[in-house]
User: Fold these one by one.
Assistant:
Number 1:
Amino acid sequence: MSKFQLTSTIWIVVILLVPVTALCDEGDRLQRALDWPKVDLQSYDAVFVEDVLVTDPMGPERKNQEMLKTVPARMANFISFSLDTDLFGEVHRRSAEPGENGLIVRVELPQYKPGSAAARTLLVGTGSAHLNIKATLLDAGSGAELDSFTEDRTFAWGGLYGGTRGISLMEENAAKEIAAWLALGKGEDPDAILEKMKSVAVQGPPEAEHGTIYILRPQGMVGAAVRFRVGIDDVTLGESKRKRYHVAYVTPGKHKVWAGNDKKQRGPEITVEAGGVYYFMAMGMKQMADKKGENKLKECKLAREVDLTRFE
């Protein structure tokens, strides 16, 4: 057997062994939140999402140091994105100041092991990613702990799915589940939470002066199977998928619009004007003329809408 035939056979076996379905669906995520401690959050209107704490004692020895450096803000942003603003009047992506009242969401990662995407691609069960989570809810006024939970997770899928997914997916799934946990504490019906988890949280544009940035990935065969993330400045918006778009509202001024991964990002820096609207093609991160951007936007469905003025 030739080297080419052997390589092809290995790929076929790996792809057949590993399904290309999602690791878990919204029903699984909601069930996890239902299994966590019950907590009454009815009296809280404001919520403060702190930077995630990485307390992994092996952290300095992990190979992917860039992932460890960026996860505190990235995962906290995902939690903030996922919170239902109909349930919480104020969602802050920061620590509470002395004298402020509200709910503090504090997440700690006692183990954060990204693993190896290359190893997972080649052989099922190798290069696995591990994420240990401790989430704590505290009263901002008194500092008293309301409740907490801990959970250990492993991602060991192989083939194309395992090579293009990993700990970032685990981060985002955990963020959605924490948001569902808080919604349950506010008395939201589980069926209503499930429907919202299946849809996209629409935050709407802020009242303050802002510009609007669209990042689109319309129909196309070139690079259709390529998976990557998109973001603005130091905020990861999420994964770019075919026929989907992300929209972000940002403060006027200079901003970097990028595509890539949490380790390597490429894209231009632009000057955003108040009331300005900007369209970018996710593949190559090229800016489009307004008319072309408007037409391409019609080909796509919303992936995520984010008010980044809250992160300034």
Number 2:
Amino acid sequence: MASKTVYSNFNPIRLLAQSNPPTQEHKATARSHAHKRLSTRYGPWAVVTGASSGIGREIALQLAKAGLNLVLVARSQQVLEEMAADFATRFSIETQVLAIDLAQETAIGRVEAETDDLDVGLLVAAAGFGTSGPFLNTSLDQELDMLNVNCRALVGHCLYFGQRFAKRGRGGIVLMSSIVGFQGLPNAAHYAATKAYVHTLAEALNVELAPQGVDVLASAPGPTNSGFADRADMRMGATLKPTDVAQGTLDALGRRAVVLPGLLSKFLTYALIPLPRSARVRIMGRIMHGMTKHQHTEQQLHLNKQ
């Protein structure tokens, strides 16, 4: 009779618990390999929009640590110059500052002109902002500015740098999507629509540009403590750290088409997947209503005074 092995005492949870966690030395080695991959695959220059704060700033920092030279794009000249000086001193890289408002129609051309003579291998389009509250209470000028920054400037940069990367046979494009782009979002309707645009564009370009050596990634984080909520007039609860979002994003570049950086992003997304799209819209709408509840209260107080 053939012998049979019984695995009744096998406990994978216990096995994992008994395994040795990675040491600081192992972590440092892994990070060194990750930095080398970024510099080899996507160097020598990277363009980061929205570089002055939040996720964009953290991605710029990680790229500087990897030794990539940086073109830092945002509205704040002083903040960018301070970052550039700090990165040049700490990491011995070259930097260039472009203080540009990407909502302006001339912004795309200025970025192209200022980077034309640089060997750029990576575009990180992290610039963006959101609006919140009832759609009918919004300002058209503000909504159009958001559309210009989140979509118009982004597609212009994708086209320009995508063509350059395809010609050189390698490169990378990181587009900052969001989990709110996976369905409609009442009380942030237009913002969610811009992120849906970004997400589907990234998914398509990932397939189109891969044969030409260009990696395209859609990074879709959940709520992040990045200063975004202040400008959008939201009150967030649990949030991700920009550092974790930046690290998860860069680690996924060249390895997949979409990344949900951080456990919170994954939890909020996967928890809703089994539900019909209409149900997801309503649930997300209730969540957003909670984040913008103060706006409704303030509006009601204003109406009561009239």
Number 3:
Amino acid sequence: MKSSDREVADVLKSRYQKIAESKIAGIKSARRAELQLKLFPDWPDDRRGAPNEVIRSAIFGVVMRGRRKRVVDMPVAGPAGSSITITGWRLDQYDLDIWLEVMHLARNTKPGDPIRFTLHSILKRLHSTAHHAGANDFNWIKQRLYNLVETSIKFDDGIEEGAAGPLIAAFRIVKTTGEAELKTNPELRSLWESITHLDIEQRRSLGQNQLAKAMHAALASHVTWMPIRLDTLMARVGAEFARIRAFKAALEFVLDDFKAREWIHGYSIGRGDNGLVAIDKVRRPTQVRAAQRLRADEGDTG
């Protein structure tokens, strides 16, 4: 092919690619608008619905004790092919506890519609996961709500980039009674098309162990755990350890506990920072059926 012909071919290929990407973006935009009119999904009362794109990312990290960090365009690890940054507060598993509870109350509501509750009712739902005790309880919950409304998410999926806004849109609290009204963010409705049902009593039983909570969510979101590099896993759960060696020790402690609870059959961690973390998880009946459907779709009858 001549140089001039190759240049023409490259120009046409680029033009067709842009047209295709524009059409895909248009379809996705129309889909988002459609979903914003659709109710949030429902799930059993003993579960907490969590978007897979959120719990498979480091939006809610494993943050060490100390003063809370303000961040600006902070990259956080996410699913392959996506880029996520957050501006606001470095969110942790306690923030996720609060978000799971308020979104539980938002089941079967229209995105953006107000949901009402009392701070006391949220405390009762949290049980042993509450970080503080006594007079500081309400202030602790209020601060976590501020964290969620003040932290916004930017994304880039290769075709589109933009800002999805905060994890909750707005809230207000009556100071004398603790009665609260909260509005969800309609821009995030599309995330709820692929969710995991977290066993809330299992999560609560993990107390204040943030890494355990992050791993519990990560395991629940996968029908089958695919081996992952140790350093990649550390980034994926947003674990703030000074050394990977320390993260490995903490992970082994968590997985040993999961095995004792019979949540996993066993695990192995390869040598070095990039050693593979393999986990043989105990599947729920729904996950067993999902794995069977996957094998059937792949033509595996064995």
Number 4:
Amino acid sequence: MKKCPNCGADVATTAKFCTHCGYQFSQVTSTSAATSAASTTDSQTSSVSSSATATSNVATSQTASQTSQATTQTTSQANTTQSNASRSTTTNASRVTSNPQVQQLQATAKNYFSWVLDSWKNPGLEIKTESYFSYISFVIEALLITLAGVTISNRFLTMAGSSQSYVEVNKLPFSTDLALFITVLIGMCFYIVVGYVTCLLGSRQSKVSYSVYMNRFAQLTNYAIIVNVLLWLSALLVNFHASSFTDFFASFKWVLIFFTIGTFVWQVALVFVINKSVSHPVISRVYLALIAILVVALLFYLMDKIALNGLRAALPSQLENFIGELTNAFGSQY
């Protein structure tokens, strides 16, 4: 038995029509089939859509994975390149730093400048250091004095060459510069040798060693490094284009002042090193110092007569003519 969907009456299961209202049961079957087919179609469409969506998600996931891998690989290569470059730079720097010669040179320079600063702070204090530091100071002082002399000479010759009234004069050749440098070194040797010989001959008992004497002398004359730097700077300020001799002397006076101070520093150092190095003097230390100064002055006089004549001869002949005419020009104004 089944019920009629139209009137609700009970009818036979095999009946095709309702015996009460005449409703045809085939319509229900068609509608159910259509509904079932539509449901099946929707289910299939939903399944296909889900499958397509899943496929799209898988493809997107694979693409994202590949992009991430490529980005990771590129970043890794960049980091490797940067790490190699940094490692190469560090290796080169470590090679330079680990070079024994470079380390020794740096340590020597640091110790030398530390010794110079200590000698400036307390020149009377004996500081134990390398014996060759004193020679470095003497060479530096000689170079500064030579640089000042060459600067003045070249500025003068340049002015003479640019003048329309005089013959063109070239700058000093390198041989003349070298001769001036050697002359300054010889003058320093006069002080050093005369002072040491005075200490040896003026002492009755114990004799001072040469290394100790040189260290004392260098510590006392390190002040001349500062003075000679100022001497060179003042040489740059000399005005050879001055309109009068008074203006020229005003620019040149600082050269004379600093040169005189530098010479005074060496003479004072000679006196102090003799006073400190002679333990049991044969005669008074004052007389020993005066004798040493006189001997040094005599040696400079002889050098002026012998060596400096050759140095002056190395200057061009036009320079002497220029000096004579310049002197006459300044002299005619007074």
